[in-house]
Amino acid sequence: MSHRSKRAVPVSFYVLAAIFGAFVLFLYGPMIVIFILSFQGPEGGLTFPMRGVSLKWFMALLAQERTGDAAGSFVRSLFLSLAVMMLTTVISVTAGLGFRRRFSGDRALFYFVVACLVMPGVLISFGIGLICQIIGLQPQWYTTALGAQLTWTLPFGLFIMFAVLGRFDRSLEEAARDLGATNWQTLRHVLLPILLPGIIGVAMFGFTLSYDEIPRTMFSSGGSNTLPLEILALTNTETSPALYAIGTLTTCVSLVVIVAALVAIVLIQRRRSGKSIRRIDTIGKGS
Predict the structure, then answer these.
(1) Which of 9, 132, 153, 194 is the least crowded, having the fewest Cβ atoms under 10 Å away?
(2) CA 223 → CA 3, 67, 124, 136, 218, distances in Å?
(3) Could you tell me if 251 and 212 are in contact, meaning their C-beta atoms sit under 8 angstroms apart?
(4) Which pLDDT band, with edges at 50, 70 and 90, does 22 fall under?
(5) What is the DSSP string of 71-125?
(6) Half-sphere exposure of 234 toward its Cβ, with a 13 Å CA cutoff?
(7) How much of the chain exceeds pLDDT 70, in percent?
């Protein structure tokens, strides 16, 4: 009986593993520390050691105790993120479908969209605020801030749709038309169901990028802060673990959105695989 000799693990493997572990610790370590300190006891401070465990600082958020307008800013950020998510999804999908065919000025339009990524967000926000001041328009979180954040989310949504549509087999559309389907029926019953996982990804990016955006909202939200701006203001005034409680709650909201998007994608893929298996079984029985 032959025995396979065990290959020695190279030293480079341990070096790269250590570097990766340090990177993960650097990435998630601060989040874990904030999460732990948000459950600090009533007499606890902003640093270790822990002086008991309690939900006092989460209750302080609900009671608006030394936390500014945390509840109001959270509601504003939530509605703003949902609006940005919906607009980003609709515009990215329609623009992605439109870019599948060449048209006059398509290259210039593409580079114009990409330019929004390289332009500093603070300058975009400052420019919007300056224009509003010149024309006598009051900036608001649901108008000017919405437009400013779309300059950040739309390029990402468009890139995702380019990647998804680049792998799409256009012969499926041709087959649907050969079977008598109209353009609307092809879009509804063939194209959109196949693109749905990518569309969910666009929606997730739109929500998460808007939810924690600061630079593009700083000068374009008017007198009503979004949650990231409220947290930024509290870092200069708040000296209690309530600040950590806000961070924990906002992180949980982002995680819920990400997990929901991933679960939806997995369910769609399983449903699609199940339909394919049942179709194959039906064809096999018929033959």
Answers:
(1) 9
(2) 74, 17, 18, 15, 10
(3) no
(4) very high
(5) HHHHHHHHHHHHHHHHHHHHHHHHHHHHTTS--TTHHHHHHHHHHHHHS-HHHHH
(6) 26
(7) 91
Amino acid 47 reads T
Residue 6 has a pLDDT of: 60
CA–CA dist 62, 67 (Å, integer): 9
Q: Tell me the pTM.
A: 0.81
Measure the CA–CA gap between 193 and 210, rounded to whole angstroms.
26
Closest CA to 218 of 116, 120, 95: 120
Query: At residue 22, what is the residue type?
Result: A
CA pair distance 177, 198, nearest whole angstrom: 23
Q: Which CATH number fits domain 78-232+249-270: 1.10.3720.10, 3.90.1150.10, 1.10.150.20, 3.40.120.10?
A: 1.10.3720.10
Residue 84: which of 164, 133, 156 has the closest Cα? 156
- Return mean pLDDT, the chain: 84
| Structure-token pair, residue 240 | 């209690």
Query: How deeply is 21 buried, as exposed, middle or buried, from its count of CB atoms within 10 A (0-12, 13-18, 19+)?
Result: exposed
Q: What is the pLDDT of residues 209-249, one digit of tens each?
A: 999 899 999 888 888 888 888 888 887 776 778 888 888 88
Neighbouring residues of 36: CB distance < 8 A, sequence distance ≥ 6: 50
Q: Which residues 6+ apart lie within 8 Å of 172 measured at CB?
A: 190, 194
Q: How far apart are alpha carbons 85 and 207 in whole angstroms?
A: 5
Q: Which helix (H) or strand (E) holds 285?
A: helix 242-286
Is the pLDDT reported for residue 280 higher than 50? no
Q: How far apart are CA 156 and CA 210, in angstroms?
A: 12
